[in-house]
Amino acid sequence: MSLHTALVLLIAVVIGLIVGGLSFLSGTPAAGAVLAGLISTGGSVPVLRTLIG
Prior knowledge:
The chain has helices at residues 3-25, 30-52. By secondary structure, the chain is mostly helical. α1 (3-25) packs antiparallel against α2.
């Protein structure tokens, strides 16, 4: 795994954790917060790949 790939995935996971945590704190049920975090993680990977690449 290259350094670029590791950095993109690490930042995407951090973004997903932040979005999921904020969703949970705003009153969303746990399953919805997890889903929001997963969707934001997957959605941020192509954007980060373009921005960091």
